[in-house]
């Protein structure tokens, strides 16, 4: 079959690879219909996630049709139109049974990497390095899905493919950012990053009762989408001082909730010397992640407020204002998305017309156009929000 494979930093190639097959009785094989790029893929392309190997298939946000199933798959059938949550749970361990499936004890068959780096193993993720299980990704014609009864969700009637594909990752990630922040009616929320996850976090914050949501980015088309599609108040960080602007917009109080939908590769152009400090240390291998957004959120958030972090970080950060965070009494919530907890709820929001992720899809390309699609997504040209491949 055809697949889009990682072969090094910024080196993607469409290759012929072996078809996936059932390895365990609870597996299914999905024929991929749509597979989206994701901002976290850029960390792979840029070489910030170790343990990638030449030939690894990337991609983790997808929708398709079940074409084969193992003998122990009970609730799914051939022909089902399904999305698969990008972060794999087993459905049986303590974390999965408590709704925290991205902390699964069993879905990562190569736990030694994350145990060495983080102290405990993480869950497996499709197409996201051998530290996260070494699973083949979804930018391919077919993909094997383990623990299928737990990780696959049938797409309800009335929900289009273009809406459903983002229930695999972007929608639950944004929804979880709002949910774990404990947003209360009347809250003012600030969201850093207006990519796919940020857009979903904005809309989710409103669904949970936020009175106002401020969207922070530097790309006019993304700020416009945040305003027109998600209802946010846009803030271009290249034109204003973010701290001063947020204090002015909140009567000097600061946002109740600050959401990081950016992660380890924050631009931080507005932070001047701080940005170049991070870039230099990252280039020299003395710091793995650029925490410009985290520092800014600590400064801007109101006293006693909450920071919700779903932008992906991988390693170590430097110059973190722990003193400000402690003395302001801030609460930190963070993590990879527990999509199995949210998938059905998100489909219900879509069916009711309360959430429509389909506008994230700005470019639909063939798998053969994968390298060009990622280049467009990375450089944010042609008003690209998300490229979705149709193998």
From TrEMBL:
Family annotation (Pfam families):
ADH_N, ADH_zinc_N
Q: Which UniProt keywords apply?
A: Metal-binding, Zinc
Cofactor(s) required, per the database record: Zn(2+)
Superkingdom per UniProt: Bacteria
An annotated Gene Ontology molecular function: metal ion binding
Q: Where is the Enoyl reductase (ER) domain?
A: 8-389
SUPFAM superfamilies from the entry?
A: GroES-like, NAD(P)-binding Rossmann-fold domains
User: Sorted alphabetically, which SMART domains does this protein's record hold?
Assistant: PKS_ER (SM00829)
State the protein's name. Glutathione-dependent formaldehyde dehydrogenase
Organism in which the protein naturally occurs? Azospirillum thermophilum
The organism's taxonomic lineage, starting at the top: Bacteria, Pseudomonadati, Pseudomonadota, Alphaproteobacteria, Rhodospirillales
């Amino acid at each position: 079959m055809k697949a889009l494979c990682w072969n090094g930093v910024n080196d993607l190639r469409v290759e012929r690879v072996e078809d996936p097959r059932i390895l365990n009785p609870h597996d299914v094989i999905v024929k991929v219909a749509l597979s989206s790029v994701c901002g976290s893929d850029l960390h792979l392309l840029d070489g910030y996630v170790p343990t990638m190997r030449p030939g690894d298939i990337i991609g983790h946000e997808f929708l398709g049709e079940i074409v084969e199933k193992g003998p122990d798959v009970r609730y799914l059938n051939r022909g089902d139109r399904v999305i698969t949550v990008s972060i794999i749970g087993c459905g049986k361990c303590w974390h999965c049974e408590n709704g925290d499936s991205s902390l699964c004890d069993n879905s990562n068959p190569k736990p030694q990497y994350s145990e060495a780096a983080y102290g405990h193993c993480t869950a497996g993720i499709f197409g996201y390095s051998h530290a996260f299980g070494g699973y083949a990704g979804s930018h391919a014609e077919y993909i094997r899905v383990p623990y299928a009864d737990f990780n696959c969700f049938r797409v309800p009637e009335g929900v289009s493919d273009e809406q459903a594909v983002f229930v695999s990752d972007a929608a639950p990630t944004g929804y979880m950012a709002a949910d774990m922040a404990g947003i209360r009616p009347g809250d003012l929320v600030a969201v850093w990053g207006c990519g796919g996850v940020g857009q979903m976090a904005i809309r989710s914050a409103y669904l949970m009762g936020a009175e106002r949501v401020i969207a922070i980015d530097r790309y006019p088309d993304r700020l416009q989408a945040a305003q027109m599609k998600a209802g946010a108040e846009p803030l271009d960080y290249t034109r204003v001082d973010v701290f001063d602007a947020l204090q002015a917009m909140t009567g000097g109080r600061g946002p109740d909730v600050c959401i990081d939908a950016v992660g380890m590769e924050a631009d931080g152009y507005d932070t001047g010397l701080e940005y170049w400090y991070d870039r230099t240390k990252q280039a020299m291998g003395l710091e793995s992640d650029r925490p410009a957004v985290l520092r800014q959120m600590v400064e801007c958030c109101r006293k006693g407020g909450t920071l919700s972090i779903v932008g992906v970080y991988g390693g170590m950060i430097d110059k973190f204002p722990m003193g400000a965070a402690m003395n302001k009494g801030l609460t930190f919530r963070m993590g990879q998305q527990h999509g199995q907890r949210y998938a059905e709820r998100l489909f219900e929001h879509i069916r009711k017309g309360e959430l429509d992720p389909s506008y994230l899809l700005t470019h639909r390309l063939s798998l053969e156009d994968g390298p060009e699609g990622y280049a467009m997504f990375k450089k944010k040209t042609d008003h690209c929000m998300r490229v979705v491949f149709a193998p």
